[in-house]
Specification:
single chain, 373 residues, alpha+beta, Cytochrome Bc1 Complex, Chain A, domain 1, 2 domains, six-stranded mixed β-sheet, four-stranded antiparallel β-sheet, 14 helices, 10 strands, 45% helix, globular, Peptidase_M16_C, Peptidase M16 C-terminal domain-containing protein, metal ion binding
């Protein structure tokens, strides 16, 4: 097995990503890609993932298997992660998934807490404006709630998602790999239902409300884009404690109660967000300062600041991969986007090579696309 992991494409369309296990808790993540499904199916996906996780917990308990199961939902995939101390238990994950999908009751009621996608915090108004209401990236919590409550909607979505060949990323070795592959190959999938294509470019979202919030959205890049790491470094410079925006808005101006700035890369596109909570009447000054910081960063950033931002990203990357679930959830996300485990492993070295010129170019591209000049 490669130190980075291996990939197998199975005859039924399912994909297996195997990464080397570490001592202690091991994990496996099942992710059903949402590319190509209908908008209704994508809207119901977090609720379906929560029901799958509940059924898997019940199946594991019935077999006296000691595991932890949590739903996983992103704008690109829905599924779950299983963690166990005994690596042999992960071999049962494909079978548990098959049984869970078949065991969902009819009618299917929404779960009490369907765990929204990880990218929902603050960002859904931005994604709605950037990608529109016709793409899954533009779905809001209200859209998901309506879809899950629609008669038969959750059942239709569960059936549609069960028909999509899944990605399984697991920490495994030896005979456990062959058992996982055989179990995954035995699943019956017919392919996704017809859905929306990639989003069309749209202007960025700039939102100022009377409730003293300022939200700025900028188009970003997809997970597989060659400029992804330059965008990461750029937004690491802008956001974070004592980042360029923090220094201008909080330390120098005392304008914000809270502040966040980050970029997100998805399979079919990306976005960046500046979010600020500020005192009534100061949103205009906040907007001016954000624009001034973006203009300054476009004009050039000192190399030592770029280096520091890259180092912070590398440290955060390694910290995120310290757990089994951190590894398998990211490996599944990369595979769903058509990227290999090697791309995930190469992230630190790629980030480390980003130059100040590439950072300035990334921010210039974003502001040109957004039309905020």
């Amino acid at each position: 097995m490669s130190a980075h992991g291996t990939r197998r494409a199975l005859p039924n369309g399912a994909r297996l990503v195997v990464v080397p296990p570490r001592p202690g808790v091991v994990a496996a993540t099942v992710a059903v890609p949402l590319a190509g499904v209908t908008l209704e199916t994508a809207a119901c996906a977090p609720a379906v993932a929560a029901r799958w996780a509940a059924e898997l917990r019940a199946a594991a308990r019935a077999e006296d298997a000691v595991v932890r199961v949590d739903p996983v939902s992103t704008p690109d995939a829905a599924g779950f992660t299983v963690e166990a101390l005994d690596p042999a238990l992960l071999a049962a994950v494909p079978r548990w998934f098959r049984d869970a999908a078949a065991a969902l009751p009819d009618p299917l009621a929404p779960p009490a807490d369907p765990r929204a996608p990880a990218d929902d915090r603050w960002s859904h108004p931005v994604r709605r404006a950037l990608f529109g209401s016709g793409h899954r990236y533009g779905l809001t919590p209200a859209d998901r709630a309506r879809a899950a409550q629609r008669p038969g909607g959750l059942r239709r979505a569960a059936r549609a998602l069960a028909a999509v060949p899944p990605v399984l990323a697991a920490q495994a070795e030896g005979t456990h790999v062959d058992v996982l592959a055989a179990g995954l190959a035995a699943l019956d999938h017919r392919g996704p239902d017809a859905g929306a294509g990639p989003p069309a470019p749209r202007p960025a979202a700039t939102e100022q409300r009377a409730a003293a919030y300022y939200v700025l959205g900028l188009p970003g890049v997809a997970l597989g884009a060659p400029t992804k790491c330059a965008h990461h470094v750029a937004w690491s410079l802008l956001g974070g404690r004592e980042g360029m925006l923090d220094r201008s808005l909080r330390l120098d101006g005392g304008l914000t109660y809270s502040l966040a700035a980050f970029s997100r890369e998805l399979a079919e596109g990306g976005y960046a967000v500046v979010y600020a909570a500020c005192a009534p009447g100061t949103a205009g000054e906040v907007a001016d300062r954000v624009q001034a910081v973006l203009d300054a960063a476009r004009g050039g950033v000192p190399a030592h600041l770029v280096r520091g931002a890259a180092e912070r990203l590398v440290v955060a990357h390694h910290a995120a991969l310290e757990t089994g679930r951190g590894v398998t959830e990211r490996a599944a996300r990369y595979e769903a986007a058509g990227l290999s485990p090697a791309d995930l492993v190469a992230y630190p070295s790629t980030v480390d090579q980003v130059t100040a010129e590439e950072v300035a170019a990334a921010l210039t591209t974003a502001t040109v696309l957004s039309g905020i000049r």
